[in-house]
Design brief:
By secondary structure, this protein is an alpha/beta fold. It has seven helices and seven strands; from the N terminus they run βαβαβαβαββαβαα. Strands 2-1-3-4-6-5-7 form a seven-stranded mixed β-sheet. α3 runs parallel beside α4. One of its GO terms (molecular function) is nucleic acid binding.
């Protein structure tokens, strides 16, 4: 596939991983990607593959460069991003065509199982609170070729859609197809401030439930101890338990002795 370029340098492990897959020509250096873009000094490459940082506006900047580079030079890109990105306004703005329509040169690849992340610096979540999908900018011509190949594949399976339940990836050519695959969230994702507030509310609710449980246990324990103390006090004072009187019966006398046999 030529030279692979990953602009986001972390600890250089990407080179080792790609080499294990059989790729040899890789550009992955400790450089300022955005400075290279501004100065038009981006290293020459045949395909861009990366998992950009999800914090701040890295996703937006990466998308803007990749889409522009694809449409100007035909250089494909493969970005591993959170699934919610597909529904963001900045994504629609960065990928729409000149006449304002949905991108017709980007395909989406949905893994059969959620990805888990390895953070070298010990930050972030190993299991993220979202699913990740591949945003693949491959150009209009390759899109049509892939559509034909998918149709032939589905005809061979005699199925209407690629199944996600058999260890196979799913391919979508539009946001609508992603929604049909349930590969994107149906609810709007909260902003950072809202997520922080919800997290605090959950913690407060959890702490309240814990305190309530402890208070209940303490009260039950106190009642048990009080009952024990009363019983012990009665024993020390020689108080015996008063028998519960039996109910009045027409078949028994005042002393409770049966007047006559029942049968």
């Amino acid at each position: 596939c030529g030279v692979i370029y990953d602009p986001y340098y972390c600890n250089g492990r990407v080179v080792d991983l790609l080499c294990q897959l059989g790729f040899r020509e890789i550009r992955h250096e400790r450089r300022d990607f955005y400075a290279d873009v501004a100065q038009e000094k981006v290293p020459l490459h045949d395909v861009l593959i990366t998992n950009p940082p999800y914090s701040t506006n890295h996703k937006e900047q990466c998308l803007e460069f990749c889409v522009k580079h694809l449409r100007q030079t035909g250089t494909p890109f493969f970005l591993l991003l959170p699934n919610y990105v597909a529904l963001k306004e900045y994504y629609r703005h960065a990928t729409q065509t000149k006449d304002g329509k949905e991108a017709n040169d980007i395909v989406y690849v949905v893994p059969p199982d959620p990805y888990e992340y390895d953070h070298p610096e010990g930050t972030g979540h190993d299991i993220p609170p979202f699913s990740s999908i591949w945003f693949c900018g491959i150009g209009k011509t390759q899109m049509e070729t892939l559509r034909m190949q998918k149709s032939l594949y589905l005809e061979k399976l005699n199925d209407e859609s690629v199944s996600r339940g058999r260890g196979q990836v799913s391919i979508a050519f539009s946001i609508q197809e992603l929604q049909q695959l349930n590969a994107v969230p149906t609810l709007k994702r909260l902003n950072p401030r809202q997520r922080k507030k919800r997290k605090q509310q959950k913690e407060e609710h959890s702490n309240y439930a814990t305190r309530s449980t402890l208070n209940t246990e303490s009260k039950l324990k106190a009642c048990t101890n009080t009952s024990k103390n009363i019983n012990q006090g009665q024993i020390m004072l020689g108080v015996t338990k008063i028998p519960t009187p039996k109910k009045n019966s027409s078949h028994r006398d005042a002393n409770g002795v049966r007047k006559k046999k029942r049968f």
